[in-house]
Amino acid sequence: MCFVTAEKERRVKANAREYNEKFSYANNHIKTSKYNVFTFLPINLFEQFQRVANAYFVVLLILQLIPEISSLSWFTTIVPLVLVLVITAVKDATDDYFRHKSDRQVNNRQSQVLITGSLQKEKWMNVRVGDIIQLENNQFVAADILLLCSSEPYGLCYIETAELDGETNLKVRQALSVTSDLGDVSKLMDFDGEVICEPPNNKLDKFTGTLHWRDNKYSLDNEKMLLRGCVLRNTEWCFGMVIFAGLQTKLMQNCGRTKFKRTSIDKLMNTLVLWIFAFLICMGVVLAIGNTIWETCVGRKFELFLPWDEFQSSAVFSGFLTFWSYIIILNTVVPISLYVSVEVLRLSHSFFINWDQKMYHNQSDTPAEARTTTLNEELGQVEFIFSDKTGTLTQNIMAFSKCSINGQTYGDVYDEFNQKVEITEKTECVDFSFNPLCDKAFKFYDCSLVEAVKQQESAAQDFFRLLALCHTVMPEEKSEGNLVYQAQSPDEGALVTAARNFGFIFRARTPETITLCERGRAATYDLLAILDFNNVRKRMSVIVRNPQGQIKLYCKGADTIIFDRLDPSSEDLMYATSEHLSEFAGEGLRTLALAYKDLSKEYYQVWQKKLHYVSTVIENREEQLAALYEEIEQGMKLLGATAIEDKLQEGVQETIACLNLADIKIWVLTGDKLETAMSIGYSCNMLRDDMDEVFVISGLTQLEVQQQLRNAKENILGLRRLSSTADVQKGDVFAEDSVFEETIISEYALVINGHSLAHALEPQLEHTLLDLACLCKTVICCRVTPMQKAQVVELVRRHKMAVTLAVGDGANDVSMIKTAHIGVGISGQEGMQAVLASDYSFAQFRYLQRLLLVHGRWSYFRMCNFLAYFFYKNFAFTLVHFWYGFFCGFSAQTVYDQWFITLFNIVYTSLPVLAMGLFDQDVNDQNSLRYPSLYKPGQQNLLFNKRQFFLCTLQGMVTSFLLFFIPYGAFSVMLKDDGSDFSDQQAFAVTIATTLVIVVSVQIGLDTHYWTAVNHLFMWGSLIVYFAILFAMQSDGLFGIFPSNFPFIGTARNCLSEKSVWLVILLTTVVCILPGLVVSFLRIDLFPTLTDKIRHLQQSRKKQRPQEQNLRRVRRTSSRRSAYAFSHQQGYGELITSGKNMRVSTLSSSRSLERIAQSSSWIENILKRKNEVSAEPAESHKADRLK
Length: 1187
Hints:
Helix content: 40-55%
CATH superfamily of the domain at 399-645: Calcium-transporting ATPase, cytoplasmic domain N
Largest sheet: 9 strands, mixed
Radius of gyration: 38 Å
CATH topology of the domain at 399-645: Calcium-transporting ATPase, cytoplasmic domain N
CATH class of the domain at 399-645: Alpha Beta
CATH architecture of the domain at 399-645: 3-Layer(aba) Sandwich
């Protein structure tokens, strides 16, 4: 017997499959499906029988197969049971089929693998650990591989990690220098290095290992790894060695196991079925005791007339058999048709989501998709939303929005009255067609900035010259004039693109030079030094020598950092720029300050010698470099500031505000740095300046974190005690306030970073963290790992007993999506891993508002009403047998005809309640979105809970009591028209059955809020079908063919032809319905709920055309300056100056520069186009006046 031990370290040898197979590493075959052909039946049945009701019906079926106790045929149970099991199994099999299809598509992708001296095509699933594979441009990485070499110099390559983290900006990876020249197949075949590294794990940003080759050891880290799910970009080819494959890759390790999710209503139903079963046993015991007493006292006197069966030896045994008979008869209190109907409702609700045109994204041709059919009503009970940031709240697209140059702001548009105009899609953009190398996608709306550059204002030119020089962007020009920038972060790309459009085009770079095209003329700058960005410096500088021989330092960074290093001569400009920065930050824009410094040749030479010396020291090199950078960056002159918009997805602000009004708490869990996360928080209005306080938890040790958490909690609780007497009640629900004004109610926010979160999630601190977080309106967790995201969700799910929803778009969100009760994937241009793991998917975050407040609320409302009515009608139907037992000698005789019992839930009453469950709505979708507070009853579980269950079953019991005793009393004194008595049981049964069908039909008519043609058809149609079947089954013809199966010959004809019977039916219906109607009327009149008020308002406006209330966008007035526009990690300045990322032969741009220089009249082009644009509206205005 062998035991599988956990892998402590991994040893992988290149080109040695036999050696690597000894360790039994996973192959590259992946599996996200739950079942296969052999396991489907047992696993699926096991999951289905986790429903107590299914097991309950199997027990009943077994009892019905015993003839001594069965008073109903076995097919009345087995047919609907098999039906519900088959429907559910087909649905689950269909879901899993698509998972299998997706797996098969991925596993069958082709990859080039080095086998026996040549590259051979292999399916991904046949790739093994230790194989050397070749990737080509735009190909997905097949497994987690160690980069060995590439087509780029020094083994560099570029990758896109959208599948992993949703970010579309490129990242750089570099091979070890000792392997970077293994570009030949023969050299790669001789490569026999061995990698010893960490075991498989889910840490996407960390890798630790060592390469042993030629008696040397080489350190390996994450910068040398290409992870499965990445895409190779702008690199012709690369070779890599497979380290982790298949389910052991970091991508798949983050996917987690596919869990069986069940709704809270499902769990409640399990409890209720147990209650009902206990109640059923109690009724059976009462009736069994009654049978024993009756047989003892009365039954013995009738032994000659009604002899006991041979096996029936005593009255007690008779009572025992009667107990089981009544269990069978009364089992319809929980009919299996309930579960068939529930599955149909859930499937239909899923189709409603799929068909919703208002959740269809036209640009990407992406509809909303319900990838599961079991969680729809849970969408109406969500209390916590956990959202990723990049790609989910934001588009991950940076746009140059505004700037301040020499004390003058640019970017706003003004009308002829000098009033600021809001920029919309219809606002006319600046025409950059005068610039042959402009980026056609770039949009700017303020023509005055082009005018400033056109007039050769030195400040404006220096501003854009700085943006074109001070960066680490790599240009790519594979065809003439077709420039593509590969930026380390989208922020830098946006700034360089802005400079490009305003005439300062970054064309090429080498380790020593940067080539620009300035207003049509080529200019080459000597790159003397890059003072790179890091999280401490919060700025970046370059030192260049311009074509005139002047040495200049250009710097960009966080405004607070730059302002501390300015020359006193820039003080006035600093104050003016500071005001502009505050204005930019108030609009949620990401800001940077720009400055420059003229350096004398002598000063630079002395400083450069110091730099060379410090760069060679071993001890404290970083600190000495920082001090040297600090020295030269003093006394700079301010140029201005930039403002970049990290574009939110459309409707994010309105969606968050609306969900907040619905008492849904939104937590942002992101891998971005703290400043970026807070900037987006302000942009989304999740963070606001009117909040009492924003607590930032950034402790490095557990003690520090504990103290910060406790201080924040005490601060909140202390302030709340002081202000508790000053609470102001909310105004009228119909006030025409905007959503943003309603949400500003002075709150707290919590921001915590990943290091501190790791300590806060320890068992001794997790309760403190959760208590504090729940006291805050907004929670932002930054720099968190995928596992920490899942741990935060699990913490809330475990301790708050609330329904959680996680929404994300990358593989780093998969664990969070699978941990939450409901997982939502954002589909679009990013990766599809989150979508594949999700329960629901759509293209934009804003659709979450409609998914929850409309579809979720309606699904919950419909399901609750459906269940309440179903239990009511079945208690009313079934308990008539209980009352009848006291008058039939407890003989387990049924009141109704057996056909009525069989068809009651399947035919007579199934369709009206199904129509109500499908189409009913208390308010329409516009009002559901307009009044988010309507969502709160679902969160509080008010519409269907144990109390509501008790009330609806009590109503059913009372109805059954009235249904039996009113006709019973009437029949005891009632005579037919010919004077004879109503003495037969069959007429009594038909009367009760007819009354029951009419009563439950009237009741569902009263319970239905929204009538459609389908509702009318099903309700009236069911009544017509009932009478048609009743008269058909009790006709002479069927009795003549099947006399034993249709014993009620002529009963309906004789009974329902009597006026007195119809009077009894009318009386019973009124008495059954009237009390509930009165209670409902008084409740709505005296104690109306918010729903009642809005429904009344909706009905009063029914004749008017509904006008959807638009959410007014309120500008945030903030004094906070948002994050500086830099990458989230250390820059690549050292890489650029080393020349390692430069191609051996770069495309010469001299010809194109000369061609542009020939067209030097670009200023005239601007003037000409500007005059044409300004002349057109003037002429049209004049023409209008002449008309």
